[in-house]
Specification:
This protein has five helices and twelve strands. It is α/β, with parallel strands linked by helices. It has one domain: BirA Bifunctional Protein, domain 2 (2-Layer Sandwich). Strands 1, 2, 6, 7, 8, 9, 10, 11 and 12 form a nine-stranded mixed beta sheet that branches. Helix 2 links the parallel strand 3 and strand 4. The termini are far apart.
Length: 233
């Protein structure tokens, strides 16, 4: 008798705009439930208020703004447990937090990173932008301009954190940091490259489509954010 393959599914939740602290608390809660196999793989897409995050290898000198400037611009700062240096999150930027079990896919952190990049590369391609990778750096690039930052954590083969894709992002907020600790490169956004704002919901739909295909899922379901309010929201 032939073995029937197990269908791989994930859930997608659009959290809208949510504070970094609440989203981080939510990630940790969902991560623990995923390690116990109580829930399916899930990806959250969302936006944050103005926030700088410093990863485990971040140099604090890469935060340029002083306390007065941070307060004046209403920017919060977090030191967190993902890889990478400092980055910015804010309105108009789509942040993706996949919490998935790589044991059910491929136990390869490097390949996981590359595939997250591929999700954004294919999304940009739908708008006629030929983006790609750089050998020394993570993320997605358009020539010498970074359009998407990636920083992850993998523990017990369960993923956390993810990507920050500049769509309609106010790029002036990158002036307060040395993004990802890279001095000689610029940042850009989809709207800057295309010369006009893009509908965020439209981009999210494309991201989910490519995420499903690239990570080999058979199907997904959409869940409302209210389902997670009992955790931290």
């Amino acid at each position: 008798m032939e073995n029937q393959s197990i269908s791989r599914i994930f859930e997608y939740c659009d959290l809208g705009q949510i504070s970094y602290q609440n989203a981080w608390d939510l990630q940790k809660s969902v991560f623990e439930r995923r390690t116990k196999n109580e829930i399916n793989d899930i990806i959250f897409l969302l936006e944050h208020p103005h926030t700088y995050t410093l990863g485990k290898t971040a140099h604090k000198d890469n935060l340029i703004y002083n306390e007065f400037e941070l307060k004046e611009k209403k920017i919060t700062v977090f030191e967190i447990d993902r890889g990478g240096d400092i980055t910015y999150h804010g309105p108009g930027q789509i942040v993706g937090y996949p919490i998935i079990d790589l044991k059910n896919w491929k136990q390869d952190t490097h390949l996981y990173l590359r595939n997250l990049e591929e999700v954004i590369i294919r999304t940009c391609a739908e708008y006629g932008l030929r983006t790609g990778r750089k050998e020394k750096y993570t993320g997605v690039w358009l020539d010498e301009r970074k359009i998407c930052a990636i920083g992850i954590k993998v523990s017990r083969w369960i993923t956390m954190h993810g990507f920050a894709f500049n769509v309609n992002t106010d790029l002036t907020y990158f002036d307060g940091i040395i993004p990802c600790g890279i001095k000689e490169k610029e940042v850009t956004s989809l709207s800057k490259e295309l010369g006009g704002k893009i509908e965020i919901r439209e981009i999210k739909e494309k991201i989910i489509k490519h995420f499903k295909d690239i990570f080999g899922y058979d199907e997904y379901s959409t869940v409302e954010k209210e389902l997670f309010e009992k955790y931290v929201l």
